[in-house]
Design goal:
The structure is a homodimer of 427-residue chains. Chain A has a domain of 234 residues: Rossmann fold (3-Layer(aba) Sandwich), CATH 3.40.50.1100. A seven-stranded mixed β-sheet of chain A has the order 1-4-5-15-10-11-14, sandwiched between helices. A four-stranded parallel β-sheet of chain A has the order 8-7-6-9, with helices on both faces. A two-stranded antiparallel ribbon of chain A has the order 2-3. In chain A, strand 6, helix 6 and strand 7 form a beta-alpha-beta unit. The radius of gyration of chain A is 20 Å and the shape is globular. Chain A has 427 residues and is an alpha/beta fold. In chain A, helix 12 packs across helix 13. Chain A starts with a strand and ends in an 8-residue tail after the last helix. The first copy, chain A, has 18 helices and 15 strands.
Chain lengths: 427, 427
């Protein structure tokens, strides 16, 4: 057996909320006034919730059913190539219409906003995966959509914009001339590569300044409710692992920029770990933006202009400008509060790897397993290879589960630069 | 229900050979000598076979099982958008690792060649889908691979090359300086957009001239054995349609360039039609390369240099140079003998549509159903929309089935040109 798919009765119908189980964690108490101009009430409630399980509305389940549940694959060919005794499994989120697991929250947020009579959503995107997922979700729910895409990613992945346009959204490079914060950053440094933090400010500002009041902001990460929506991935992976006959995972690996894709796979496993199961949960980040390995644990905002609420999390500072690595999703200055708190408590183990070893792992994965993955997932794969080789050294049959969070078909310029040996080693 | 997937017992384990059922059709009797330097004996046998069902070797079933069987979807959102009483279904082949249904034959050919001790395969590609499928198949079976890609497509879809490179293959624009025929064409017209017929000549010539005798040629179309391998698509679609509770299809639609994707979906339905079921089977082609609607039915070769055997088929002449439409797969001068014969007998109804109406249909499909399709599938969609609107006019609940033969993620330049209104109307 190489693939496990759940049938419809086995599919989860609730989201898992780590806030209920994380020892000593208090959800934020946010001032509803400001939040309500950005988010529908249901999402604000989810943000502050301590309920362990939150029921998924039927309308969202309907939207999610296409191309889902995503399969869990055994990476038997990669195991052979590495000659490892480890059994490696991956949750393939690349098969969704938007090509990324980010659709879990994108479809949920679009649905809640549509129900709350919003007409338009704004968002930031770095790698373009969130922008794609949201543009797709808006087309499925009849919402307009504007995406601010970090300029360096916009230039590295020019066709992301065309995808969003095909779904009817518009995508502009950030910093842009359309917002005050964008113009200010451009005045200071006109050739800036842009950052997610500035793109978030632009998206939030656009939503707040819309005088008709029908524009809301849809974040692709950081917020608890985004982590919550993504947990379908890990819930399914746990159930699928059992279909393979595995009793438990020994190692769970995902890359963490803002933290949404990582949380999606890891949180349901983390619940097991908190309940006493022995397990390593590894978050992988770039050496160029080492938030969890080198950042400070303190209050900070997700955006440069401070339009989003302050949250306790690991951060490199909201004016940090990361190097132009191809994994745009790993260029953030901060990681979500829930992921940060879990890291702070030692429940997850952060690891930084560099771009070149990531692409090396991605190419050997493509040649063994056939899948061409996103640069973000390439970072995950670098850690997977490290752990598989460690298992070989230790002669132990470990079970490794990782997230293939998106395909790399919009990111082939990165692969091209890798083949041409043009990527700096250190990032 | 919006999606039907077969479980493992329901999956077909044989290929369907239309040559057994097509009235008055005689398979070619090919001189084995010349053919044996191009193909393994098993494939030559399949080319000339009149057996209705041909067993699929276990090794090929293994290779095929990943990301298969591909789902059949009900296009309920498209139906709503068109307000048609027709029920529209599509077989989604875009989910394979190579992103195209061409993997059916690519994996089969790679496996047979590996068994026959070949070490390297050469191929032509136009849109890049066959090149991708074969590069992926070679990586899965441990073969080297060289792909000659029509220059215009090579320029329109630069990242196809990077995909092939990621799987370890090399891809060069055709005409190239690496073969005599390539050099000759370049001498005559150095800025030629290239044609599939020249690319085939280059691929065949490279295989024939390899003095070590371990290089074979892997065609992506034309040959009976390619059609044969593709028929898994239609066999599955028939079974999946039944899972939706449909007794039969009224209209089956696929685009036909060389004819492989079309045959894959259509031939198993064609068997029903030959046996007496009332059904329209529509092949869609470009007005710029109107092979089945305006070509001659006569003997011709699939390549310019005449290195491939003469076959009776519809052709525009093997030196025909089509316009540079984005649907590279629909730029061929000829369509496969089996498809041609079925068209000649009136069993299938060819239709030519133009590029602009194709992209219009593709964009409305993306906004309703979420999928961004290849430019080839966009032509299919134009005919699907025509038939759905006709059903509305006639107030008839017709069942339409079509092939989504590949995703359009490498073809976004075409969408970009469409949005910029840069595409000529006539093609």
């Amino acid at each position: 057996m190489t693939k496990a798919v759940l049938n419809s009765e086995e599919r989860p119908r609730q989201w898992y909320n780590l806030a209920a189980d994380l020892p000593g964690y208090s959800p934020p108490s946010l001032s509803p006034g400001k939040m309500e101009s950005l988010f529908p009430a249901c999402l604000i409630e989810q943000e502050m919730s301590r309920e362990r399980w939150i029921r998924i509305p039927e309308g969202i389940l309907q939207l999610l059913c296409r191309r889902r549940p995503s399969p869990l694959y055994r990476a038997a060919e990669l195991e052979k190539a590495l000659r490892t005794p480890a059994r490696i499994y991956f949750k393939d989120e690349s098969c969704s219409a938007a090509g990324t697991g980010k659709s879990y929250s994108a479809l949920a947020q679009a649905w809640y906003n549509k129900e709350a009579a919003a007409q338009k959503l704004t968002a930031e995107t770095a790698s373009g995966q969130w922008g794609n997922a949201l543009a797709h979700a808006c087309s499925q729910t009849g919402l307009e959509c504007r995406v601010y895409m970090t300029r360096v990613s916009y230039d590295q992945k020019p066709y992301r914009k065309v995808m969003m346009q095909t779904w009817g959204a518009d995508c502009i490079p950030s910093p842009s001339g359309t917002t005050e914060i964008g113009r200010q950053v451009l005045r200071e440094k006109s050739d800036t590569p842009g950052t997610s933090a500035v793109a978030v400010s632009e998206a939030v500002d656009t939503a707040l300044k819309d005088s008709t009041g029908v524009t809301r902001y849809a974040p692709g990460s950081i917020m608890n409710f985004v982590m919550l929506h993504q947990t379908l991935s890990g819930q399914e992976a746990r159930a699928q692992l059992a279909l393979f006959g595995e009793k438990k995972a020994d190692i769970v690996i995902g890359c963490a920029g803002g933290g949404a894709s990582f949380a999606g796979l890891a949180f349901p496993f983390l619940a097991d770990k908190i309940a006493g199961t022995d397990m390593d949960i590894i978050s992988v980040e770039s050496r160029g933006a080492p938030v969890l390995t080198q950042g400070c644990y303190r209050n900070d905002t997700a955006d440069t202009a401070g339009l989003t609420p302050e949250r306790l999390m690991y951060t490199l500072g909201n004016n940090f400008i990361p190097p132009p690595i191809h994994a745009g999703g790993l260029r953030r200055h901060c990681t979500a509060p829930l992921v940060s708190e879990a890291a702070h408590q030692g429940l997850i183990t952060p690891r930084a790897v560099n771009q070149v070893e990531s692409f090396e792992a991605a190419v050997s994965f493509a040649r063994s397993e056939g899948f061409i993955v996103s640069p973000e997932t390439a970072y995950t794969l670098a850690a997977v290879v490290q752990e598989a080789l460690k298992a070989k050294e230790e002669e132990r049959e470990k079970v490794i589960v990782f997230a293939l969070s998106g395909h790399g078909l919009m990111d082939l310029k990165g692969y091209q630069s890798f083949f041409a040996a043009e990527l700096p080693e250190y990032q």
